[in-house]
């Protein structure tokens, strides 16, 4: 790589699920990567295989405190992402989103760095339009159990938009829809990790409600492609950009598919629907495609097989129906 295109890049939340894949991609591209994390939900095991790379550096730090480093680009991913994790300490979740955004924007302003924000489809709440487009303002409960995350991320978007307008900061706001793959935390309570662990250990798959609520799942490799493409655009798009796979599926069907790819004989057990659980979610990604040429390319069953291989190693299951999968975890926590 030419020296000119080699950048110093800060990834906050770099030891988490998405962050570790992003660090890996940027290290492979030859950039100098500074991975910052307080290990709240992330793990050193996720980035252990990068520690010997000369262009990778790990820093324990909490994004709610100021950080003075010299970088060219910032990817701000630090924030617990699963409902179980972000509701565990909801005040800290809002602080992480809001104070974290202020600190990283202040840093971007001082060093004139380009800055990416990992926002979320949760800014749409329980949406009244379908599929969701970026100009939809959302339908969010400001005082419910999900609000610490939803409103924290909405306020972070406001800060990014205002730092752009007021200080000319070059921003990229990605509204990330449900993403899955290897290195998801096995106990984060998210649907794919729950179903994988349950299927691989012979437990019933816990479908909340009647399982007819939908999500649209994007495989992690596709999502990381989108992050890098969005960051590489020559100019700030001036609008948040939806990133996700538009393939919409019900929770009952994903339970059945998980049983299929793992070859499990687990049953399905129905449990109460959590409060404020969004009913439907599907991204309209035409803006992302128009701006970057990106569309996700991993079919759901292929992604689930790769994910099953990872969880099989975690669960100590020797073999699954995912025997044609390519991904093997580097470390088993
Ligand atoms: P994750 O929990 O695996 O990763 C988050 C990382 O941030 C962890 O490593 C955690 O330790 C770290 N972190 C948390 N609080 C911190 C703090 N105060 N200071 C420093 N580090 C801190 O979750 P993920 O799925 O990798 O999500 C990454 C980002 O993407 C999050 O901002 C999340 O909101 C966003 N996102 C993810 C999804 C998804 O489906 N995975 C969907 C929408 C948005
Ligand atoms: N900040 C940081 N690193 C820097 C510069 C700023 O962490 O290199 C933090 C600092 O906590 C500051 C915040 O970013 O309060 C916002 O910075 P800004 O310059 O926008 O506003 P300030 O509060 O300094 O007036
Ligand atoms: N869900 C489920 N069983 C589980 C975990 C989750 O049926 O064991 C449902 C949950 O109620 C929601 C969907 O799966 O409707 C996605 O949940 P997740 O926590 O993964 O993501 P989010 O709700 O934040 O999109």
From TrEMBL:
CDD domains, A to Z: UGD_SDR_e (cd05230)
Required cofactor(s): NAD(+)
Chain ranges of the NAD-dependent epimerase/dehydratase domain: 9-244
Keywords carried by this UniProt record: Cytoplasm, Decarboxylase, Lyase, NAD
Residues in the signal sequence: none
Gene3D superfamilies: NAD(P)-binding Rossmann-like Domain
InterPro entries tied to this protein: Epimerase_deHydtase, NAD(P)-bd_dom_sf, UXS-like
UniProt main location, coarse: cytoplasm
Gene Ontology CC: cytoplasm
Subcellular locations according to the entry: Cytoplasm
One Gene Ontology biological process: D-xylose metabolic process
Pfam families given in the database record: Epimerase
A single MF term (Gene Ontology): UDP-glucuronate decarboxylase activity
Keyword Electron transport (UniProt): no
Highest rank taxon of the organism: Bacteria
Protein's name according to its UniProt entry: UDP-glucuronate decarboxylase
Top-level taxonomy: Bacteria, Pseudomonadati, Pseudomonadota, Betaproteobacteria, Burkholderiales
């Amino acid at each position: 790589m030419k020296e000119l295109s080699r950048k110093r890049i800060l990834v906050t939340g770099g030891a988490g699920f998405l962050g570790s894949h992003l660090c890996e991609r940027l290290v492979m591209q030859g950039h100098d990567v500074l991975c910052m994390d307080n290990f709240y939900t992330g793990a050193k095991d996720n980035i252990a295989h990068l520690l010997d790379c000369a262009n990778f550096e790990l820093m324990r730090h909490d994004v709610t405190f100021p950080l003075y480093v010299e970088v060219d680009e910032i990817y701000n991913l630090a924030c617990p992402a699963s409902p179980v994790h972000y509701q565990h300490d909801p005040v800290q979740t809002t602080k992480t989103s809001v104070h974290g955004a202020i600190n990283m924007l202040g840093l971007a302003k001082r060093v004139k760095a380009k800055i990416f924000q990992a926002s979320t489809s949760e800014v749409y709440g329980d949406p009244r339009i379908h599929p969701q487009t970026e100009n939809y303002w959302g339908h969010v409960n400001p005082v419910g159990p999900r609000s610490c995350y939803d409103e924290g991320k909405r306020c972070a978007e406001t800060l990014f938009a205002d730092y752009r307008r007021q200080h000319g900061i070059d921003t990229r706001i990605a509204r990330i829809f449900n993403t899955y793959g290897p290195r998801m935390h096995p106990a984060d309570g998210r649907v794919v990790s729950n179903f994988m662990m349950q299927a691989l250990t012979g437990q019933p798959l816990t479908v909340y409600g009647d399982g007819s609520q939908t999500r649209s799942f994007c495989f992690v490799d596709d999502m990381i492609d989108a992050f890098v493409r969005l960051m590489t655009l020559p100019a700030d798009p001036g609008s948040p950009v939806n990133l996700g796979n538009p393939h919409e599926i019900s929770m009952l069907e994903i339970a059945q598919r998980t049983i299929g790819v793992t070859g499990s004989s687990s049953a399905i057990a129905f449990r109460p629907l959590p409060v404020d659980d969004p009913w439907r979610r599907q991204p309209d990604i035409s803006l992302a495609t128009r701006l970057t040429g990106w569309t996700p390319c991993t079919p759901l069953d292929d992604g689930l097989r790769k994910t099953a291989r990872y969880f099989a190693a975690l669960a100590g299951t020797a073999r699954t129906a995912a025997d044609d999968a390519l991904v093997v975890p580097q470390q088993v926590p």
